[in-house]
Structure formats: C-alpha cells, structure tokens
Amino acid sequence: MRALLTLLIALACAVPVHALGQRGLHPRFRISRSELAECVALLPAAVRERALAAPADFLTLMDCVLDEQPDLLLLVDKTRGLPTDYVPPDLVSLDRYPLELTRSGLSLRRVIMADLLAMAKAARAMGIILPLSSSYRSYDYQVKIYQQELMTKSREEVERELAPPGHSQHQLGTVIDFGSIDATFAETRAGKWLLANAAAYGFSLSYPPGSERETGYTHEPWHYRYVGKCAASLIEGFFGGSQQRFLEFLTEKRRFFTERRKA
Ligand SMILES: [Zn+2]
After folding, report:
1. How far away, in angstroms, is 195 Cα from ligand 1 center?
2. What are the strands of the beta sheet with 175-178, ordered from one edge?
3. Residue 131 C-alpha to ligand 1 middle, in angstroms?
4. What spacing in Å lies between the alpha carbon of 175 and ligand 1's midpoint?
5. How far apart, in Å, are the Cα atoms of 199 and each of 2, 67, 128, 135, 261?
6. 115 alpha carbon to ligand 1 midpoint, in Å?
7. What is the pTM of this model?
8. 132: β partners
9. What is the DSSP string of the chain?
10. 131 forms bridges with which residues in the sheet?
11. How close is the Cα of 247 to the center of ligand 1, in Å?
12. How far is the CA of 252 from the centre of ligand 1 (A)?
C-alpha cells in the first residue's frame, strides 16, 4: 500500500497544474461519474466500490497503464492463448546479469530487466536472495513438457498445474518462477519478501490463494508476472490482488478508456 501511495503521489505531481483546474473526475479523461460506474458495474462489489470511492486515483493509474506496452498486459490463460509462433521481440539471456540462477539457459524480455535487477538488489540489501528457476518457455518447449506429463497423468491432473501449449504465461517472456517452484516457497524469506514487495517493482503474483476458480490454477507462490508498476498498483490497490480479474477488465475496457482519454 505504501508503494501504491508513493506511486500515486509521483503520478499526481506529473499532471500539469493547468489541467487540475478542469472539471470532471480526472484531468486526463472525459469520463463522468455515471460512465465510470457503468464501466465497472460488472466487477465484484469490493473492486467496484474501491474504484468509485477513489476515482481520481483509479484513473491516474489507468492513465499510466494505457502508456505501457500493450503486450506486457496480454491476457493469457487456459482459454485465451498466444499464437504458436509468438516469440517476444527482445529476449535476452540471463547468464550475463548479476542474478541468482538455479540453471543456465534462462531468458526474459529486455524491457523488464531494469525493474527485475532493482528488485533483486533491494532484496539483497535485506540479506535475501531471489533464486530464478524458470523463465521464458517457447511454444515447442511447452508441447514437450505437456506431452511428458501426459505419459503418467490424466489430462485433468496435468492441466491443474500446467497450461496447455500456447496458454502458458511463460511464453510472454515476462514471467519468473522463483526458488523451489512448490508450495514451500511461500514460507521462505524470499517468498515472503516477494509477496510484500514485488508490486513496487511491477511484478504481480499470477495465481494467489483462493483464485483457482477464476484462474484455473491452484496457488503458485513462486510464479510472478511483470505487468509494470502502475498495473501492479492497480491490481494490489483496487483489484484485491487479482491479476486475472484486472487483465480481463483491461482487455474488455481498454477501448472505453482510450476513447475517452485526452490527447
Ligand atoms: Zn510458472
């Protein structure tokens, strides 16, 4: 929450002073209160109430989210996949960075590296190492591990933990599995530190506890997706920590906000 406040203050200071005199919910948008209420009408009551209780903060973060590269915010889940030939445009090998890697051959998108390195450095300053265990997974690699798993388990069992090929967030090149990649990670110092601090660096827990119905996955305390600092703050501050719900909302309503944003 402290990170959210800091970010909101920084963003508010970036709004030109002359714009603050204009009427409306927010100087950057032509949106009335009733339009915003209609836009968020289908969200869960708690999310809706938070947005309508602090519409200026909500829209400040949304304004910032619309400036993010759209491919950082693609919705990828069990029903919405990526094209089989989707390869992120700026993959870099992690071998040359000062990071703790549990194996070689890991890669991520260059666009997330500055925030990842800052997060690892901040953790290190607290005496905490963040071990990176898995990162980008190509479509072909997903096919391989999916088929391997199917040799010993039913399809239903496999898909509870593993996305069908083309449906893994890992294909985005912005997702990291930390540490042991199992439930014990939540109890480690690294797991606890990430839960409390990852959002300040733009990372969001994709499958939090109790989200199996909406995400299709059981709790994965090790799996973080980079969405950018503003999206991460919106998820934490308004969407109750649900990345899935936020990305569904953004996918559906992106046009609503872009059409009403001032040039
Ligand atoms: Zn993962």
Report:
1. 15
2. 100-101, 131-134, 175-178, 223-226, 203-205
3. 13
4. 7
5. 11, 18, 17, 18, 25
6. 19
7. 0.90
8. 101, 178
9. -HHHHHHHHHHHHHS-HHHHTS-SS-TTB---HHHHHHHTTTS-HHHHHHHHHSHHHHHHHHHHHHTS-GGGG---SSSS---TT---TTEEEGGGSS-EESSS--EEEGGGHHHHHHHHHHHHHTT---EEEE----HHHHHHHHHHHHTTS-HHHHHHHSPPTT--GGGGT-EEEETTSSGGGGGSHHHHHHHHHGGGGTEEESS-TT-HHHHSS---TTEEEE--HHHHHHHHHTSTT-HHHHHHHHHHHHHHHHHTB--
10. 100
11. 17
12. 25
Count of CB atoms situated within 10 Å of the CB of 2: 7
Would you say 199 and 232 are in contact if contact means Cβ atoms under 8 Å apart? yes
User: In terms of DSSP bridges, do strands 131-134 and 100-101 run parallel, antiparallel, or are they unpaired?
Assistant: parallel
Q: State the residue for tokens 């294909």.
A: 171
* Cα–ligand 1 centroid distance for 126 (angstroms): 25
Alpha-carbon Rg for the chain in angstroms: 19
Per-residue pLDDT of the chain (263 residues; tens, 9 = 90+): 556 555 655 555 454 444 443 457 999 999 999 999 999 999 999 999 999 999 999 999 999 999 999 999 999 998 999 999 999 999 999 999 999 999 999 999 999 999 999 999 999 999 999 999 999 999 999 999 999 999 999 998 888 778 899 999 999 999 999 999 999 999 999 999 999 999 999 999 999 999 999 998 889 999 999 999 999 999 999 999 999 999 999 999 999 999 999 98
